[in-house]
Amino acid sequence: MALVKRTAHVLTLGFTAFWLVATSRAPGPVHPCFVPLEAKKVRIALGAAMPASPGAAPSCQGLDDLREGAVIGVGLIPSSDRTARVRVDQDDACLGYDVTELTGPVGLSQPHSGDPRYPVPRALFESRAHFSSASSAPRCAGEYHISVAPVNPLPRNALVDPLDAGHREPWQLRRVIRVDTTRVCALSPALPPGDCQDIFEVRSLELGP
Amino acid sequence: MSSGPEASAPRSGEFFAPLPLAALALLVVNDVYLKAKFHNFVTGKLSDLAVCFLMPLFLSELLGLTLGIAPRLRLTMGAATTAVLFSVLEVVPSAAAWSVNLLSRIGPHLGLGCHYAMTADITDLACVPVVLLAYGYGWRRVLGVVRAPELSA
Description:
heterodimer, A: mainly beta, 1 helix, 36% strand, globular, B: mainly alpha, 68% helix
């Protein structure tokens, strides 16, 4: 009995420490932030790349052919209820879309939606994929992450229309490639192992294939 | 050489007790269910009240179990730490930002993700006096255990 009580005591202390951290995670669950899209596919036209902030990861230099003027196609389905159990800051925890298809960037395989436990704040969608570049030797390979979100904080008690992206509201597409540390991408200048990142303005977001 | 009641005081007992455990349960229920369902002023304050009550006793018990600190001192340390920490986080935005940054580094190792939020709200300071209640409760818990052998003598 003493052992049981002591075990319960230790477990309770451990759980309390855990929950004192966890309690700062969120005031509420994910919630709808966007006007529903009435199509299963969208086209996103990219504008200029935003200048990198000091200390940010270097540019990916078009490893995946994403540049100003590129158009990507995304197949979307509304996120399932599982995301309602995610705990993030209420203002940014958006019930968005899961990605079923991703066209435009080259070198991608196995695109899928990001881990619902750790969503990108305010994102309409985010997707991960395996990336392998055929434009350099030796081949660059690694993890690929892409997300699209409004630039500004979301208004309370109002839905944002994704179709306003680039016209009435600034949106951005953020793409990160985590290069496999065992390989070096032979580009000029050489892209070292680690993350590279580009943030593009979204020029437009339209429905359709 | 110490003498008096505190010399024989237990190293724990103030946290593993009905009220602090009830506060812990309230904190969990509020975070998991009540906030999601209601998300109003009351649910926002319930967590603060629970933390202000259980955290001094939690810290005190840890100090007793790990360092063998005497009850009066460890209860004071637990209460003071909670009051100061809670107040600073509510009043100094940079402190809250620093804490969020720290939690975002710790959280993933606990399976909690990396997104945290702390809203600096000066009205939350109304919960700080609860720390005094926690101190009093902890002292009665420990003192009750200490006095029992004398009463039975």
